[in-house]
Structures are given as C-alpha cells and as structure tokens.
Specification:
Shape of chain A: elongated
Order of helices and strands of chain B: EEEHEEEHHHEHEHEEHEHEEHEH
Number of strands of chain B: 14
Largest sheet of chain B: 6 strands, mixed
Structural class of chain A: mainly alpha
Distance between the termini of chain B: 33 Å
Distance between the termini of chain A: 23 Å
Largest sheet of chain A: none
Oligomer: heterodimer
Helix content of chain A: over 70%
Chain lengths: 256, 300
C-alpha cells in the first residue's frame, strides 16, 4: 500500500506542478458555464439571425428556453471536454517509457501493477472530479435561471456519460501498455470509439455498445426508460474489467 | 559468497545474437569492472540481472535467489544506476529520494537520515531546486544517491562515467570506491583508466562472451612485463648505450627499450650503465596496460 501511495502522490504532484490539473479544471469549469450560457443567449441569437432566416423562408417564433435546453447543451458539449481530457492524458505512460523514468522505480522493486493502477486512478479521479465540476456548475446556473425539476433522470444520464469516459480511460491505459507512442495510443482510443459507434449502427448491438451510454440525454425529456441502458452499462463495465486485467498482465511482461 | 551469479545466459534480439552462453560471478565486497566495447552486450547483461529483459536461456542469481523477469523480488538487493539516469523533473532531489524510500518501504526517519547522508556524499546537500534544472553530472550524482538509498548489497552502474568531464569522473569514481565496504559494485565501462583506478576484479566481454576474467593481478600477470624502458637526459647518452647493449631499440630521442626476461637482467643493465658512466633519468620495467590486453582481446 505504501508503494502505491508513494507513486500516486508523485502522480498527483505531477498533475499539479506541470499545470495539467489547472488546465483540466479550467476546461471543465468553462464547459460547465458554457451550457447555461449558450442556452441563455439562444433566443437573442435567434432574434439576431431572424432577418436572415426570414429571407431564406424560415419564420422564427419566440424560442422558449428552459433548464432542458441547458442540459441538452451539457450532453452536446461534454464529449468535447472528454476529448480534451483524453488528449491531455494520452502520454501518461508513454512519456515515462520515452524518458526512461520508470526504470529507477521498477528496479527498486515496485510492483508493476501498482504503477499501472496509480496512473489509472489519477486519470479516473480527475475525470470524475471534472464531470462533477461541470455538472454542479451547470446545475447551479440552471437552478438559478430556470427550474431543474422539469428534467428527468439527470443524475443517471450524467452517470452513463461518466461511465463512457471511464471506459475510454481504460482503453487509453490498455493501449499505453502495448504501444510506446502517445500518438498510437490516441489512434487506438479513437478507433475503439469508432468501433463502438459502428456497433451502435446495428440494431441488434445498439443497446449493448458503450457508445449507447452517450445517448442517455434522451431520458431528460422523458423519452425511454433507464432499464434500456442496463445492457450497455454491464457490457461497458465488463470491457473495463477485462481491459484492466489484460493491461496488468501485459505490463508485467513489458520491456520497459 | 557470490552476490551475483550468471550461468550460461544467452540473449538475442531478432537474429542478432548479443549474449552467448555467458557465465561469471561477482564475489561480495569487490569492485567488479565489466569491460567491453560499445555494443558488446554490457547493458543487455545488466538489464537481465535487473529482470528488465528476459534471457533466452540460462539463469541468473542475485544473493542466491533466482532472478525472474517482470515482477522481480531480487531487485530489493540491488541499487541500479542507469547510464543516463532520468528523474521526474518536477520533484526536488529530496522529494525524489523520499518517494524512492517509500517504494522500498524504509521507515520515515531512516529515509530522512539516509537522504541527507547521501546528498552530502554526492555533493547535492545544498541543492533545493527541482531536478528539471539539473546538469548531466548532477543527475549522475543524484542517480548514485537513489541507487544507494536502501543500502543495497549490490550496486550496478551502467557506464557511470562515460558522459562526464574529468572532475565529475573522479568524483563519481571516488564515491564508488568509498561505498565498497558495505556494497559490492558492478560497473560497466569502456574507459580503462577508470577500471585501473578502482576495480579489483574485471571481466572482458567480447562478442557476447567473457574473453578474460579474474582479479586485477591475475589479468595483469597473463602477460607479465617483459621489457625495460630507459630514459636518458641527452640523446648522445642513448646513442652510447645502444652501442654497448645488443638488442636495444631506440623508441624516442632519449628513450630506449630492450627486452629483459628476468629481474636479474635489470641488475646487469644497471651495472653496465654505472661502469660506462652513463646517467639516466629513469629505468622502468614496463607493465602491460589494460589497454594492451583489451586490444589483444578485441583483435583476437
């Protein structure tokens, strides 16, 4: 446990001292503010553009903005925050291979799986805190401007999105065990996302694909049931567990 | 007792055979020089000892325990200084040593005590800036400090002096020499003067095999000095000596070399010099240098 904590402490200090944590906090705060802000200015923007739209034959009536508009923005924008987060974390292991910094650590008798889980935990922690940050900021503004109570299953929908990010983190970890370049790691992450998206196109697989977790925004307006996401949740958790097991086995055999 | 034993180890990368049936052992409390050309397989051997590479065949033992690739428990006996040690630039030396101490499960007070001791030993005790701003020499010194932190039984250094200036080299060698009492030192190098300075045992690695090994004396005795060099003050003295002594060869204006198999030959020569009133500056039995031996091994 002491080994694990010592290394995790180093990971945390790295996030703080290299400024990565600050950047992530700023990103998640900005995304949190952006959702209600975009919702708030939507009527005004519509009005600004109404003349142009009228010329093309579209008539703009008064747009009614509610907390739902803002939450819809949340689910539209957060994948962007996830992307920024993944790109920032892409070199979490590969940078150590390239610099050779793990050699000192491993030759001191540090168990390799502890190194791996330290890294995963830091990423998962930042992802979780980031989601909470954006969520609470959006929630606060929405409560102030509108009324959150008209939106259904918001916590569950945020949870499934968070789980989707959690899955991509485990893919990133897995790719980092087997690839030495952060560019390839990012390609593998993107390909995994693409594969799950493709799987979602087949009606038979749709509800079991991790990317289905990103469609939970529909629940907010009262479309569909929570239980429809159970399959995707279980499959995703299964993929995370299997991915981590393969990573730990592979990491033990890696030439560092 | 042998702290390290390497037995019939082979390793290739693809079709490239790096190490072939390598066997040698390192007794405790020695400074063991592991010598070879660049690319001879020194680093590969060390990485196998550390469990960082998997040997294709053969076994390695550290302190009697078998080395296993991957999760390697024998590393607790070993301190390792890589050829270019790399650290986390955002930590200070003390923070880095603290983390290392916690990883090796030393208790808190001991970490603090050892850190101060070692930072003083390597001359970094007043440095409080982050490692990012360190020079190569400073990193090498911090590398030694981290390798010695938990008082390992075996210290493995991979070309610790190759990249340093003469002052830095001398400092590192002095440190390695000073830890000899508690720790066996195995260090690889291609700088032979370093070996002559501190090693008591050596092994020449050539083309994946041990070409020569033994104590420093044994190695040097392989080809005992068989010639004598005399240096004169004036060239004309050298010329006179050449006339009276058969078989002498002039190597420089004032230097003459001649073969002398036995030590009594030296006395005969001295007698001749004195009888002929030839003044000399220096008379020396030439020892074969490690460099001669090394070249001999490499050319073979």
């Amino acid at each position: 446990m002491r080994q694990y904590l010592a290394f995790t402490k180093k990971e945390w200090l790295e996030q703080i001292r290299t400024g990565k944590l600050l950047v992530m906090v700023i990103v998640f705060v900005l995304f949190g503010i952006m959702n209600p802000a975009v919702a708030k200015i939507t009527p005004w923007m519509m009005e600004m553009m109404s003349d142009q739209l009228a010329q093309t034959g579209m008539a703009v009536t008064a747009v009614e903005v509610t907390a739902l508009t803002s939450w819809m923005q949340f689910f539209k924008n957060m994948p962007m925050a996830l992307l920024v987060f993944l790109v920032m974390s892409g070199s979490i292991l590969t940078a150590e291979y390239q610099k050779g910094t793990l050699i000192n650590i491993v030759t001191k008798g540090m168990k390799r799986w502890k190194i791996y889980f330290s890294k995963m935990c830091i990423m998962e922690l930042i992802w979780t805190l980031g989601c909470l940050l954006s969520y609470s900021i959006t929630y606060g503004y929405n409560a102030y401007f509108w009324d959150n109570s008209i939106v259904h299953h918001i916590n569950f929908a945020v949870f499934t999105f968070w789980l989707f990010g959690f899955w991509l983190i485990s893919v990133l970890g897995l790719a980092s065990v087997f690839c030495n370049s952060s560019a390839i790691v990012m390609i593998v992450v993107a390909a995994s996302f693409g594969a799950s998206y493709l799987a979602g196109m087949f009606p038979a697989l749709k509800e079991y694909s991790p990317s289905y977790l990103m469609e939970s925004a529909g629940l907010l307006a009262g479309e569909g049931e929570i239980s429809a996401y159970l399959g995707a949740i279980l499959v995703t958790i299964g993929l995370i567990v299997v991915g981590n097991v393969i990573s730990v086995i592979g990491f033990d055999r890696k030439n560092i | 007792m042998d702290i390290l034993e390497i037995s019939h180890v082979s390793k290739s990368f693809g079709s490239n055979k790096i190490i072939e049936d390598l066997s040698f052992s390192v007794p405790e409390h020695s400074v063991f020089g592991f010598i070879g050309k660049n690319g001879a397989g020194k680093t590969t051997t060390m990485k196998m000892v550390l469990g960082l590479l998997k040997p294709d065949a053969g076994e390695l033992f550290v302190n009697g325990e078998k080395v296993r690739f991957g999760q390697n428990t024998t590393n607790r006996y070993i301190g390792y200084l890589p050829d270019v040690p790399e650290f986390y630039g955002f930590l200070t030396p003390r923070e880095y040593l603290k983390m290392c101490g916690e990883i090796t499960d030393m208790d808190k007070a001991r970490i603090k005590e050892r850190s101060e001791e070692l930072l003083a030993l390597v001359g970094l005790e007043t440095v409080n800036k982050r490692i990012r701003g360190f020079s190569r020499g400073m990193k090498q010194r911090l590398g030694i400090a981290q390798a010695l932190l938990n008082q390992p039984r075996l210290l493995i250094c991979d070309e610790p002096t190759s990249a340093l200036d003469p002052v830095g080299r001398k400092e590192i060698l002095d440190i390695l020499h000073s830890v000899k009492e508690h720790t066996t030192v195995l260090f690889s190098t291609h700088i032979l003067s370093d070996v002559e300075r501190i090693c008591d045992r050596i092994a020449f690695l050539h083309e994946g095999k041990i070409a020569r090994k033994g104590t420093m004396e044994e190695i040097k005795n392989i080809r005992k000095g068989d010639s004598i060099e005399i240096e004169f003050f004036r060239p004309q003295d050298a010329a006179r000596f050449l006339q009276i002594q058969e078989g002498a060869v002039q190597t420089e204006r004032t230097k003459v070399v001649l073969s002398a198999d036995r030590q009594t030959d030296i006395l005969t020569i001295m007698k001749q010099l004195s009888e002929n009133h030839i003044f000399i500056q220096r008379l020396e039995q030439l020892e074969p240098t490690l460099e001669d031996l090394f070249m001999e091994v490499v050319r073979k």
